[in-house]
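Can't attach files on this board, so I'm pasting raw text. These are the components:
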Amino acid sequence: MRPIEDYVSRMSGADSGAMNAAKRLQDTLTKPQGSLGKLEDISIRLAGIYGVPRPSIGRKAVFTMAADHGVTAEGVSAYPQEVTRQMVLNFASGGAAINVLSRHVGAEVKVVDMGVATSEDWPEGIVNRKVGMGTEDMAKGPAMTVDEAKTCLEVGAELAAQSIQDGVNALAIGDMGIGNTTAASAITATVSGRAPSEVTGRGTGIDDSRLRTKVSVIESALRVNAPDPSDGLDVLSKVGGFEIGGMAGVLIGAASSRVPVFLDGFVTSSAALIASVICPESVDFMIASHLSIEPGHEYALAHLDLEPVLNLHMRLGEGTGAVLALDIADASCKVLAEMATFDGAGVSGECE
Amino acid sequence: MRPIEDYVSRMSGADSGAMNAAKRLQDTLTKPQGSLGKLEDISIRLAGIYGVPRPSIGRKAVFTMAADHGVTAEGVSAYPQEVTRQMVLNFASGGAAINVLSRHVGAEVKVVDMGVATSEDWPEGIVNRKVGMGTEDMAKGPAMTVDEAKTCLEVGAELAAQSIQDGVNALAIGDMGIGNTTAASAITATVSGRAPSEVTGRGTGIDDSRLRTKVSVIESALRVNAPDPSDGLDVLSKVGGFEIGGMAGVLIGAASSRVPVFLDGFVTSSAALIASVICPESVDFMIASHLSIEPGHEYALAHLDLEPVLNLHMRLGEGTGAVLALDIADASCKVLAEMATFDGAGVSGECE
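---
Top answer:
Structure tokens for the assembled complex are below.
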């Protein structure tokens, strides 16, 4: 695998010339200036990402990355760990929410086992890039080794690069991993400098008592490991997860090929924080799809300076919010490409 | 045409049995309960509308209704009145935002001239149901006669009934009419009891001085006409518009056939207020698609007790926000119809 530094070193930010051209184009279309709101904003951001004034979204895919978390031993989740494995099988048979919504918007689902705690053979369609059999319990020590963290990033970047080479030109990321909002909260607390109690929520739906446990487990993990907020690999290895590392790798890999990645909820935003520490320019290629009801999500997006497209009160993960926003982004590009101009349609502009 | 009372008299509200069944079904699907947020809520509302536990959206259409407003003589808009006519031609040739977005989501666009101030023949595809050559100036007297107001409602209800008979089972409404946010503000002030200054915004983008003019024009219209907030026909005739009446008719006609109508922005919500006064049960069949940046929109939706699906900072009209929400509603029905259950997929439920 190519080292992650390879991707980072050939990265440049958004193309401001293309963004300005897209903005000027928007203002010639038969509608009051700015009246399509976020649809206009997204199309302009995509112009900057693709480096053309009239971007278009063609083949879309979502990477749904799965892994297990040793920290589940601490009783931080409402669901047993085996649900991760069971849900991977559900993805394979097309019965999960991400399958339904991806079919609706015309996106391919690429399910990747980054570290599910099972040695069984997966059915066809599941990509096995297992880095380990679940992470270690971060409340007791590092979740993974630095080498494993690096491997996660490189696997993710390679998968992104491969799919882009195959013709995909817009990506989304999503997660599946019982216990992974605990890792996401620990990462968000570390990188944003917020207290664990501020960035920790109910995940799949825990009660008050388990929420108190979850916060104190995260406090222990941060005390025991002391992750360095300026070192993304250190944060990932100490309090991250294999799927979080994989998604951070997708973000870096796609950005180095100038392909947008649509974030999903809170766990994907923690992958975005890791990617942003390793490579700040990668943020130019991220689109925040929706605002999760997990409290840490808003802090993570604020730290990344990203505004979510949707707010549907979702908290499922898997990439479900990301594919819905991908579809709206697709529509936003069509507006720019297909709408008539004031001159072309003989429509009068504003009164003097 | 059938009198509007015919539609009103055979109206019943949402089917609460089907809604409860849909709610129970949602809770068996392989996701934490409630984790799809508004997607779950919409599917449950649609179950109540269609009266089945697993609703589905098939053929979709948007009625984009156009008319002119005599009140433009008072200088309340940033665009000249002829833009209404020019935009109808733009709709006919497929170059407007509503054409692009409807193609994206697979909805038919039905453009209806309810009262554009021109006697020209429209190209094919434009439905001519002109009630008048634009309304009178409501700052000086009633915008239209009570008979004209009734005709608007009956035309709208008939068009809805016809399209439903043709096989459409989900409708959206949208508006085009230079000056129509002035009418919408006057209606909203009347029905919600708010002051004109609270419910009046910049429409297509007027400056501060024109905004002050617009507010004082609305204040005059309410003083001169004294519309009765408990009489929808009175409000429509005195401070409404032909396209607003047509859309109110679509809302009543569709509701009487148990078909949902997706509202768009502020002007459509003023049609919804008229319909709600004439027939309160019609509100059960309305879905609020998005929150416009027009300040009156939020008050109108609050009065109707409807929560918008999207908030994309749009303020274009035409039905553009409505068709985007229609597509999300379509996805929400697919979730209910296509997702695996915990039992079926062998996925463990919550820990005890």
